[in-house]
């Protein structure tokens, strides 16, 4: 009886490890994702939107720019008086709404991603250099930041687009150039604290170059904040692109954009509600998906988050 006790205890520990092994093998990010309802929802939304954008030519039932005068303002197939040919109806020029929404996802993702990459690169570089060197360099960059903060982003963007003319490339550059400030301020605040740490002082004492310290020692420590800000900034950028396209200063026809579709549908709200409703829902759902993922990433990358 006594001789079997260690074996029994050992077997119990083995069974415990085997029973919890499935959960223990899951990566931390996946466990956090499965635990977070908003995170899971956001990831699913972004996956659907991304797949839609990539495979839009295969998924679209009709040519998004093909006009059909005989089918103008046809209601959705499931609505009263609808036709099975058009699932989400047609617009005032007889173009299929579903196909246009599918193609519009490409514009929103491309503009959002590229604008965030440009703004993040500018803000990261300025934030690192400004806080690392300090002195007059920091003062000069911070006065530049104050200048950008003094002018509303949308007003600054409208002025530049009015001078340079609308277009996708111009829109990406303008949104990137006007949205770097938030990155610079957050990165600067973190580096001001990090540069006084022992590992930075040790690197300086042995003659490591400043560029190497910033890239190899400081940059990895601000990556989590950078990713979270980038995610939330992308939601803002998608809304900005839609707003500018709505005003006629963003994406120009025949390129399809959700903001342009929303602008075209505002004149038909009373009797052709689907023209504005579906693009508006696409913008709202995509933006919420990005925000949900940003909240999840904040929890995932927060150093204060305890191991689950």
Automatic annotation (TrEMBL):
InterPro entries: BP-dependent_transpt_permease, MetI-like, MetI-like_sf, OppC_N. PANTHER family: D,D-DIPEPTIDE TRANSPORT SYSTEM PERMEASE PROTEIN DDPC-RELATED, OLIGOPEPTIDE TRANSPORT SYSTEM PERMEASE PROTEIN APPC. One of its GO terms (biological process) is transmembrane transport. Gene3D superfamilies: MetI-like. PROSITE patterns: ABC_TM1. This is Peptide ABC transporter permease. Keywords: Cell membrane, Membrane, Transmembrane, Transmembrane helix, Transport. It comes from the Bacteria. Belongs to the binding-protein-dependent transport system permease family. It is found in: Cell membrane. The keyword Cell membrane applies. Residues 105-294 form the ABC transmembrane type-1 domain. It comes from Paenibacillus flagellatus. It is a multi-pass membrane protein. One of its GO terms (cellular component) is plasma membrane. Its main location: membrane. Pfam families: BPD_transp_1, OppC_N. The keyword Secreted does not apply. The chain crosses the membrane at residues 38-60, 107-129, 167-187, 226-252, 272-297.
């Amino acid at each position: 009886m006594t001789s079997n006790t260690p074996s029994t205890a050992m077997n119990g520990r083995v069974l415990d490890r085997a029973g919890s092994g499935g959960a223990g093998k899951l990566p931390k990010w996946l466990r956090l994702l499965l635990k977070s309802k908003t995170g899971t929802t956001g990831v699913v939304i972004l996956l659907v939107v991304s797949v839609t954008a990539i495979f839009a030519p295969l998924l679209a039932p009709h040519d998004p720019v093909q006009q059909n005068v005989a089918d103008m303002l046809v209601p959705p197939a499931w609505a009263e008086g609808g036709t099975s040919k058009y699932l989400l109806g047609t617009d005032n020029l007889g173009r299929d709404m579903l196909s246009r929404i599918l193609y519009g996802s490409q514009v929103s993702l491309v503009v959002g991603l590229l604008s965030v990459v440009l703004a993040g690169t500018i803000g990261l570089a300025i934030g690192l250099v400004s806080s690392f060197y300090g002195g007059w360099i920091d003062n000069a960059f911070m006065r530049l930041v104050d200048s950008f903060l003094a002018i509303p982003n949308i007003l600054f963007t409208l002025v530049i687009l009015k001078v340079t003319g609308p277009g996708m490339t111009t829109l990406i550059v303008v949104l990137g150039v006007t949205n770097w400030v938030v990155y610079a301020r957050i990165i600067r605040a973190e580096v001001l604290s990090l540069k006084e740490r022992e590992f930075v002082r040790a690197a300086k004492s042995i003659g490591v170059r400043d560029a190497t310290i910033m890239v190899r020692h400081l940059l990895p420590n601000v990556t989590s904040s950078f990713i979270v800000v980038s995610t939330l900034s992308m939601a803002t950028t998608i809304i900005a692109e839609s707003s500018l396209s709505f005003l006629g200063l963003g994406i120009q026809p025949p390129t399809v954009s959700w903001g342009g579709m929303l602008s075209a549908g505002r004149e038909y709200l009373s009797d052709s509600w689907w023209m504005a409703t579906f693009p508006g829902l696409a913008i709202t759902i995509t933006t919420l998906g990005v925000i949900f993922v940003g909240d999840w990433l904040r929890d995932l990358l927060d150093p204060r988050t305890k191991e689950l």
